[in-house]
Design a protein that fits this description.
about 140 residues; 3 helices; globular
């Protein structure tokens, strides 16, 4: 079974495009294969120093993370959300985001959101877990 989550940033209730320069700066050092550009976006296959991997797709209004493995790759996912100023939509529909994004969410989305001062690995595990193994 595949695990997928999405990173979204909102501005005035509309999804905002992820900054491609921020994405490349963070992911380029971890590339396990050349990035792929398609009509739908840019895809990255990343591998952390401990060998854990994930597929990352950068689309017009969100960043998708597919099949992240337990390990240091999760630190990269959390850092990406932080640097993009994005929240994390976890499977099941909960949106984890910083408190300062509350005013920018679309109407009704706050009802399914968890607000934190900072997105951390611990905050993510608290919302998305329980996991069998520690993520990192």
């Amino acid at each position: 079974m595949s695990y997928t989550l999405s990173l979204y940033r909102f501005s005035r209730a509309e999804p905002a495009a992820p900054d491609p320069d921020v994405v490349r700066a963070l992911l380029s050092p971890l590339l396990a294969a050349p990035e792929k550009v398609s009509d739908d976006g840019v895809e990255f296959w990343i591998r952390a120093a401990d060998g854990s991997e994930a597929e990352v797709g950068v689309h017009e209004h969100f960043v998708g993370v597919e099949r992240p493995q337990a390990g240091e790759v999760w630190k990269t996912v959390i850092a990406l959300a932080d640097r993009l100023g994005a929240g994390i939509l976890v499977p099941g529909g909960t949106f984890l985001c910083r408190e300062d994004m509350r005013a920018h969410l679309p109407e009704g989305m706050a009802d399914d959101s968890v607000f934190v001062p900072e997105i951390t690995l611990e905050a993510f595990e608290g919302v998305a877990g329980p996991f069998r193994y520690p993520l990192a």
